[in-house]
Amino acid sequence: MKTILVTGGAGFIGSNFVKYQLNTHTDDIIVNLDALTYAGNLENLADVEENPNYVFVKGDIADKAFVDALFSEYNFDYVVNFAAESHVDRSIENPEIFVKTNILGTQILLNAAKNAWQTGKDDLGYPTYKEDVKYLQVSTDEVYGALGKTGMFTETTPITPNSPYSASKASADLLVRAYGNTFKFPMNITRCSNNYGPNQFPEKLIPLMIANVIDLKELPIYGDGMQVRDWLHVKDHCSGIDTVLRHGRLNEVYNIGGNNEKANIQIVDLIIENVKKRLEEGAYPDIKTDYTKISDDLKIHVEDRLGHDRRYAIDNTKITTELGWEPSYTFEEGIVETIDWYLSHQDWVAQVKSGGYQEYYEKMYSKKK
Ligand code: NAD
Ligand code: DAU
Question: Which of 71, 204, 310, 333 pairs as cysteine with 112 (C-beta 3.0–4.6 A)?
């Protein structure tokens, strides 16, 4: 039985991970620490809130006194750090909070875990730790920067982040590496490609485009739309993190990806086609959209993202050959299932789009046209 601190567990990937853990490791206790920023949503966890093995704690990973107190209250075996500001466009508008949460927050967690787990020192002065403890940092493929037309990111590709978001994630990733080296701190780092699936906040490409098609709103494609991302279903990301957490060699970095490169424009076309098809079939009678108006004409090309990375592609050889992890979804089935999830969870979409979302959308997109 393990007690696992999951930070950022009310967000997109974190909430999927909390549910994955509670379903697959039924004896483990999950403590979910989340600040409930605009991206955190307890609705994502409604299915598990009564589970006796699940505890929610509201708090900020960058609040040292609070984090230290939490480590005194619980004997954590594992820490999985998802908590972050995660949206590139927001990091271009307001980088400061990215530095605070993503870098300082990570350092505070690292130190709290190191203090809680340290048992003494070895002959050379390095800390020694309790057995079977581990800190896992959920990093991103964006730390590697951008690729040209060919090549893939491996775990040894140099770290060359291009946006304030990816620079903050790279800084956190390097701090974790440094703790592994300087303090022999037991850690793993995972670097995953773009996720899609249920509960993703509709500021990100796939849920934003699905929501706009349903609302017959313009579909804002940045620049020429030929930027390439490597898509992985969120449930496969969760199983990949779990595999590294329980079986990864200490102090190793593992890429996670599904070999599934798509240009943004292809994604938008797939969404147009599949939302229209499902509504035409009458699968969602409560959705009153006039589906005859769903067409390519909704697409508009808008001003490009500043410093926009052209292509990402993950080489997943290490995790597949060394740990035997494989993605379970093909993109073709995953995207249709995801579109169905959004069509059948219009209440969830309406709830997350209330609050500050409309203001964000107007501010972000009115200036891009
Ligand atoms: P998200 O924005 O949906 O969720 C982030 C969560 O962190 C939210 O619940 C938010 O309330 C919480 N949070 C933010 N600041 C906090 C703070 N100071 N203290 C405590 N909680 C805080 O993000 P996501 O898409 O689920 O990404 C989760 C992690 O995975 C991030 O670290 C991100 O960098 C990484 N990642 C994301 C992707 C992707 O495609 N989405 C891919 C690779 C890696
Ligand atoms: O690669 C992993 C990263 O993937 C994660 O680390 C980030 O947390 C996550 O947000 C994601 O970053 P991206 O910038 O790749 O995701 P986003 O959904 O914002 O954009 C995907 C692509 O779509 C990107 O090339 C920009 C483009 N785009 C995005 C939006 C929101 C558009 O063309 N129009 C849009 O309105």
Answer: 71
Domain boundaries, the chain: 3-197+233-256+308-328
H helices present in 96-204, as ranges:
96-98, 105-117, 164-182
Cβ of 284 below 6 Å from ligand 2: no
d(CA 88, CA 128): 38
Cβ < 6 Å from ligand 1: which residues? 7-8, 10-14, 34-37, 39-40, 60-62, 82-84, 86, 101, 105, 138, 140, 169, 192, 194-195, 201
Q: Is 141 a catalytic residue?
A: yes
Q: What is the DSSP letter of 100?
A: I
- Residue 29's region, left for phi above 0, alpha for psi from -120 to 50, else beta, is beta
Q: What is the pTM of this model?
A: 0.98
Residue 334 token pair: 């995953």
How close is the Cα of 344 to the center of ligand 1, in Å? Answer: 24
With 80 as the cut, is the pLDDT of residue 369 above it? no
Q: Is 222 in the pocket of ligand 2 (CB under 6 A)?
A: yes
> Quick check: 34 and 83 in contact, CB under 8 A?
yes
Catalytic-residue membership of 203: no
> Residue type at 119?
T
Summarised one tens digit per residue, pLDDT across range 72-104 is: 999 999 999 999 999 999 999 999 999 999 999
Please name the residue that has the structure tokens 């449930």.
235
Query: In this structure, is the dihedral angle defined by the CA atoms of residues 16, 18, 21 and 22, taken in order, positive or negative?
Result: negative
- Summarised one tens digit per residue, pLDDT across range 144-157 is 999 999 999 999 99
Q: Among all chains, which residue has been given the structure tokens 């390519």?
A: 296
Q: Which CATH superfamily is domain 3-197+233-256+308-328 in?
A: NAD(P)-binding Rossmann-like Domain (3.40.50.720)
Taking the CA atoms of 348, 217, 89 and 265 in sequence, report the sign of the dihedral they define.
positive
Is residue 115 classed as helix, strand or coil in its secondary structure? helix
Catalytic annotation, pick one of 165, 179, 196, 342 = 165
Bridge partners of 300?
220
- What atom in ligand 1 is closest to the CA of residue 200? 3
Distance 365 CA to ligand 2 centre (A): 14
Per annotation, catalytic residue among 77, 141, 203, 242: 141
